[in-house]
Amino acid sequence: MPIMRRPGRHQPASPERSGDDPQVTDLVRALSAPAPTEDRGRRVRLIAQLSKALAASARAAGAGAVLSGQWLSDLVEQMAPHVTVRDLATLQDTYHLEGNALAEAVIRSASRSTAALGAAAGALAAAELAAPPALLATPVQLAAETLAVVAVELRMLGELHEIYGAPVEGTTTSKATDLLTTWVRRRALEGGAGSLLLGAAARRELRKRVMKRLGSSVTTLAPFLAGAVAGAEVNRRETRKLGDAVAKDLSVRALRTFPADRLIEGHAHEARVNGSDSSPT
């Protein structure tokens, strides 16, 4: 995915888009924050509020931008800098785990969160199927769900990098770009790549990935509770797949950079333990 170098010191880092909406950002943050999976009622209310805000945004963007996916991918870019990533110490205090076990806990938590979002969006769609005029809002509800799901997955990716000793660093804008790049590529960040900005080709790739993620949420439109169940499972599976892929990539890279003398020391310790276990008691 082609990228463009960050502008020089005297150039603006990234122009602010006219579609930025603090209300949308606040609602996405509330929806994507870790919360009990049982709190479906709250999620349904927040998705309904976000859908209303997005409806106004979609009208302002125009039908062409909405249908092409440009509108939603722009919203993802605007939301990304506001994603809160917990640092390693906070994650360890939260889950009381380390290493691969901590990564598994983070992926499991994110998967449950996106599943809960799918269930809430499905429940909202099922409730509104009884009111035909509300069907016009259904695509916007899917966009709301997708935006919140992407926020959860971006946070998960940032936290996986924290766990494996490769934290996403830099300015708020560059960190958001790095997380989006990881989300699109389904791979861990390349070490030493420096601060980068999304170029035109990269934005096209982002748009394709966002629309693909939106398409996977279409099961939410299924009638009654089937939409809630199907939407939850699709989200859980997709988030798990993404988290597993990036965690595996990070763990392999961490092993490659692990000091050779520590590896030898580890093997020697393992041999001593195995030897003592096999000795008669």
In short:
By secondary structure, this protein is mostly helical. The chain is built from eleven helices and two strands, in the order E-H-H-H-H-H-H-H-H-E-H-H-H.
Overview features:
mainly alpha; disordered C terminus; single chain; globular; disordered N terminus; 11 helices; two-stranded antiparallel sheet; 281 residues
Description:
- By secondary structure, the chain is mainly α.
- It is built from 11 helices and 2 strands.
- Strands 1-2 form a two-stranded antiparallel sheet.
- The chain is globular.
Write the layout of secondary structure elements.
Elements: E1 3-5, H1 22-32, H2 40-61, H3 63-68, H4 70-79, H5 88-95, H6 99-128, H7 138-163, H8 172-185, E2 196-198, H9 200-216, H10 225-256, H11 260-278
Helix pairs in contact: 1-2, 1-7, 2-6, 2-7, 4-7, 4-9, 6-7, 6-10, 7-8, 7-10
